[in-house]
From TrEMBL:
Pfam families in UniProt: CbiX
Keywords: Lyase, Metal-binding
Superkingdom of the source species: Bacteria
Entry keyword annotation includes Hydrolase: no
Protein name in UniProt: Sirohydrochlorin ferrochelatase
């Protein structure tokens, strides 16, 4: 459990006129640049703010998550809202709220939407707070690993974490932190790559030659081991496997699916499938600050 500050101190946000308490001492460094993380709440309205998508499958997947959160906490009013594409907009939901609200970004990293769109909406309604986004978090790494196993991940595969991308350095750091968490779970290297706005691009990561120069063997035994290893790899060549670090189907997920990798996993939410318990837990934890 993250430690709390002795007391909240107001910090100016990028949105004019808005102030929110300072972050937890123990939050990841990627979040330290913005003072918008609220350490606690007395709110009774959870505004589940997602990006929005034109994909019916993506809409169903997000709706399933919101419904699962509402079912887990019948004491809360859980209301969906969107920063783009879909309606209702976050500010419209806040205008209709009849009690103190807290916005939980159904987003996987910090970025423009958290720092400006959601902070701006909160500033228009006194008492409204904004939680951290869902990622990075080890529970997301658990869901990513599950998707990889479902897709047939095998020993020796090269894993690339496909992230949406952001021009915000904090968002890129969040994705890199997520890649490290997944690497720890898998026991192998994981490279973060981006669909847009950051580098390396997913296309670059998938196309990169995975062969690495190796030093000459120092002994007959080492030479034999390498020879056997090459023989095994020739029978079972390594593959590039992309872990889709996106919440739901949509435009970016379609681009990831067509990236040319040997294997591409489903996103975290799969329409028609059970909502991962880790995601429900994360949303409620972000709301409650536990």
């Amino acid at each position: 459990m993250t430690a709390l500050l002795d007391g909240p101190r107001p910090v100016s946000l990028p949105v004019r006129g808005a102030t929110l308490p300072t972050p937890h001492d123990a939050l990841p460094a990627a979040h330290g640049a913005w003072g918008g993380w609220e350490p606690g709440t007395t709110a009774s309205v959870l505004v589940a703010a997602s990006h929005g998508t034109a994909s019916p499958a993506g809409q169903d997947a997000i709706a399933g998550l919101v419904a699962a959160v509402a079912a887990a906490r019948p004491d809360l009013a859980v209301v969906p809202a969107f920063v783009d594409v879909q309606s209702p907009a976050v500010d419209a939901v806040l205008a209709e709220a009849d009690a103190e609200a807290r916005i939980v970004p159904l987003l996987l990293s910090a970025g423009y939407h958290t720092r400006h769109d959601l902070a701006g909406a909160a500033a228009q309604r006194p008492g409204t707070t904004v939680s951290r986004p869902l990622g990075p978090d080890p529970r997301l790494a658990a869901v990513l690993e599950r998707r990889l196993r479902e897709a047939g991940l095998r020993r020796g595969d090269r894993v690339v974490l496909a992230c949406a991308g952001s021009t915000d350095p904090a968002g890129v750091r969040d994705c890199q932190a997520m890649a490290r968490m997944l690497s720890e779970r898998l026991g192998t290297g994981v490279e973060a790559a981006y669909v847009s706005a950051a580098s390396p691009t997913l296309a670059e990561a998938v196309a990169r030659d995975t062969a690495e120069a190796r030093p000459e063997p120092r002994s007959l035994g080492e030479s034999l081991r390498r020879s056997l290893g090459r023989a095994w790899r020739s029978r079972r060549p390594s593959r590039t496997v992309v872990a889709t670090y996106l919440l739901a189907p949509g435009f970016f997920a379609s681009r990831v699916a067509g990236c040319g990798a040997d294997v591409v996993t489903a996103p975290l939410l799969v329409p028609g499938a059970e909502v991962p318990a880790e995601l429900v837990e994360l949303v409620l934890e972000r709301f409650d600050r536990l």
